[in-house]
Amino acid sequence: MRRIRGGVSRLRLPRTRRGQRRAYQAVVAATVLALAPATWLNATAGPRVRTVADAPAAPVAIVFGAGLWDGKPSPYLAHRLDAAAALYRRGTVRAVLVTGDNSRHDYDEPDAMRGYLLHHGVPARKIVNDYAGFDTWDSCSRARRIFGVHRAVLVSQGFHIRRALALCTAAGIDSYGVGVAATRDVTWAYGGVREIFAAGKAAADALLRPDPQFLGPREKGVTEALR
């Protein structure tokens, strides 16, 4: 029940033990439902998280965008790209698909990612850009449906890699993930909290498998990079 005092609505706790027990059960049920998607991600994708050193071979590495600073990859994105370059140098992958946001002309994650990889020794012909990776589901769905990726090593920070694995698996990609280490700063804390809420959308995407925001025609970039 609510009591109004001075125009302010206050929530009153139940007075009876039965009412308190029901309120407690409702809180527990709501908490379980809220955490269920995150638990699902950890249970299903956890065993497929590896390191650069022990990631299984795959034709392609998929690197997810993580923001730009003054047109350059943010530190978090740079760490992902460093791992992808290392996978290429080790021969674990033969091409790199960089997927990110280019929804406006003054913000271009894929080209910035491409430039970084070029500077770190990955040949231009081995880098493929996806300019419509607006979120993780779109990146995974487009990798499969537009670029024809069937098997890949995914690269992201540890707090995001399980969601990426679950969604790419739902999109039809046999994938393992490299969870890149991250400094435990404010960004890391925000990313961890964000994943709890993002897990719900991920579960819905995995179940419903909607079309990405932008689908477009089939592209041959990955096929040509693997020749």
How does this structure look, described?
Pfam families: DUF218 (PF02698). InterPro entries: Cell_Envelope_Assoc, DUF218. By secondary structure, the protein is an alpha/beta fold. Helix content is 47%, strand content 19%. The strands form 3 sheets. Strands 3-10-9-4-7-8 form a 6-stranded parallel β-sheet, with helices on both faces. Strands 1-2 form a two-stranded antiparallel ribbon. A two-stranded antiparallel ribbon has the order 5-6. The chain is globular. It starts with a strand and ends with a helix.
Short description:
By secondary structure, the chain is α/β, with parallel strands linked by helices.
Q: What is the strand and helix layout of this fold?
A:
Layout: E1 2-5, E2 8-11, H1 17-45, E3 49-50, E4 60-64, E5 68-69, E6 72-73, H2 75-90, E7 95-99, H3 109-119, E8 127-130, H4 136-145, E9 151-157, H5 158-170, E10 174-180, H6 186-208, H7 221-225
Parallel strand pairs: 3-10, 4-7, 4-9, 7-8, 9-10
Antiparallel strand pairs: 1-2, 5-6
Helix pairs in contact: 1-5, 1-6, 4-5, 5-6
